[in-house]
Design brief:
This protein is mainly α. It is built from eleven helices and six strands. About 45% of the residues lie in helices and about 10% in strands. The chain is elongated, with a radius of gyration of 28 Å. The protein binds iron/sulfur cluster (2 copies).
Length: about 280
């Protein structure tokens, strides 16, 4: 019969309209209260009725794996040894893999020696060209560049505002851990520490030199003195403060083995050089 489909469509619209108010009454308007998770319930798939998000007053929470433009991780301001320091070593891998080539990096130089240092002097990303693919974050060997959740970047001046410089790109490590706690934790497991790789290495070197400097009792050569133990504990604690990583610390042994291999390689090299000199 003509008009049946039209009537069905109108009835559906009417049903959604009525359900919107029924749902409001069922929740007693609690779901509009922002201090609870009622807003999330209201945005959930089980909510009936036609619900409009009152953007920008209301925003739908983005999932953890959501990615928008990249940002650079810097150390937290309250970090004991590296406050505000870049995680980026200006290796340039992200700029190389970026498909639309929208990353520019200027490597830093030591002002006294003029030699390159592993930190960027300048870092730019043209976010109008960036296609949010996330390759830069995937390929960075230092976990120094991540994809942000901040999608409100509209402005009236594309030219200057949409080329993000290092200052604009830099955000503290704690920010990354707050927007992507699961990923940050997974990365920590792979990296072996909550710290930047270099910070963890420095801490281990400090612990090793403290151990070698500490006097060793002749009768117990394998046991470190209390002073050395304290130094090691202190350094290791600063290298891996994460409660989740406590107890496991798989990186300690790996790094020790690596150091041992390195030492042996250096000894072999020295022996070869000595032979050549004979
Ligand atoms: S962000 Fe990562 S990949 Fe890019 S230059 Fe810095 S350390 Fe290298
Ligand atoms: S997200 Fe993709 S396009 Fe954007 S800067 Fe990173 S690699 Fe380049």
């Amino acid at each position: 019969m003509y008009g049946t489909g039209l009537a069905k469509g109108l009835l559906l619209t009417l049903r959604h309209f009525v359900e919107s108010y029924v749902d409001d009454i069922r929740y007693g308007f609690r779901k509009y209260h922002h201090s609870t998770d009622n807003f999330a319930i209201r945005q959930g798939t089980k909510t009936k009725g036609v619900i409009t998000v009152q953007y920008p007053d209301e925003k739908v929470a983005v999932p953890e794996r959501f990615r928008f433009v990249p940002f650079l991780i810097v150390e937290d301001e309250d970090h004991p040894t590296r406050a505000g320091k870049d995680w980026c070593t200006s290796c340039g891998i992200c700029a190389k893999v970026c498909p639309p080539q929208c990353i520019w990096i200027v490597r830093g130089n030591d002002p006294n020696t003029g030699r390159p240092v592993p930190e960027p002097e300048a870092f730019f990303i043209d976010i109008d060209i960036c296609m949010n693919c996330g390759y830069c974050a995937e390929y960075c060997p230092f976990d120094a560049i991540k994809m942000d959740h901040d999608y409100e970047l509209a402005s009236y001046d594309r030219t200057s505002h949409h080329i993000h410089d290092k200052e604009r790109l830099s955000k503290p490590n704690s920010y990354w851990r707050s927007i992507a706690p699961t990923r940050a934790y997974e990365e920590m497991l792979v990296r072996g520490t909550w710290e930047h790789k270099d910070a963890a290495k420095e801490a281990r070197r400090g612990a090793a030199s403290a151990q070698s400097r500490a006097p060793q009792p002749a009768a117990q050569p394998a046991v470190a003195t209390p002073v050395a133990s304290e130094a090691i504990d202190e350094a290791e604690a600063s290298a891996a403060p994460a409660p989740a990583a406590e107890g496991a610390r798989p990186w300690t042994e790996d790094e020790a083995k690596r150091e041992e291999r390195r030492r042996k390689a250096l000894e072999r090299k020295a022996r070869r050089a000595a032979k050549r000199g004979q």
